[in-house]
Structures are given as structure tokens and as C-alpha cells.
Design brief:
By secondary structure, this protein is α+β, with helices and mostly antiparallel strands. Helices cover about 30% and strands about 20% of the residues. The protein is built from 4 helices and 4 strands. The chain has a 4-stranded antiparallel beta sheet with strand order 2-1-4-3. Helix 3 packs antiparallel against helix 4.
Length: about 160
Amino acid sequence: MHHHGYLWTGPKQRFDQEGLRRPPHPEPPPADIKQELIQRYRDVVAEFPESDLPPLETAHWLLKPKALILGTWEEPKRAAEWLGEQLTVFAPRFVSESDRDSTRMTMLTNSAAERLGWGGDVSIGYYLERPVFLSLALVTCSPNHASPDLQCPSAR
């Protein structure tokens, strides 16, 4: 078992495009449906696998390109330390003052290590200067607890 780290920053408006943050349904819509819906399905099929947008389900990061992985760790503690480092780097830009609290960030880092230790995933998001959003994720891989059928992007 190992853990991959992901980071995304971008406009909150783009983050809110939830249709592009879900993998496409395995079956295309029927041909007799509105062209608008067929086109939306085609857009998701084309964009989801290549997009850097954070998926709605944390485990679905494993469906994304290997190039989006910012780090891989065997030890949960090392992965959580990376998360803590990212929180420290971005903390001055957090909109909420309480999110900048170092004790809170230490608690999040420790909690992440514990969750990764039993095979869970970690996903955290923060508003930065408006309208920017930060998404951080640590995804357990080989196997993923939530989606054991997902293949490791490093193995593809």
C-alpha cells in the first residue's frame, strides 16, 4: 500500500463544475435523448480523464493522469507531513483566520496520518483569495479502501 498526493488551485467557478468532476457513466445516453445531453456526456468522456479538476470522490483521483501525482509515499506519516507542508505554504492565503491556526493544521496532519494508516483517503479544501479555491488530497493506492478495483496510475 502507498499514498499519492494531489493539489489543485483554481477559480471557485471552475471547481463548481460538478459534471466535469464525475467520471462518465459507463453506458452512453440513448440516441433518442436531447442532443444537449448527448453533447454533455461526450464532453465529460473527453475531459474527465485528462482534467486536473479534483473529482467529487477522492478515490477517483486514481483515474486521472499520472502527471498529476505530486508525491508518492509508502508511509502514511510521510504523506501526512507533505499535507502539513502544503497547509503551511498556503495558510497565509486562507480566507478564514481560524484555518490559519497552527494547532488546527497540526491536528489535521495527525488526523490524516491516522486515516491513511487504516487505508482511508484524505481530502481538504480551502478558500484562498476570492474566488480561488485550494484542494488537497492524499489517496491510498494498491488497493484503495473505497474503490479497490481502481488501478494505480503509476502502473498504467
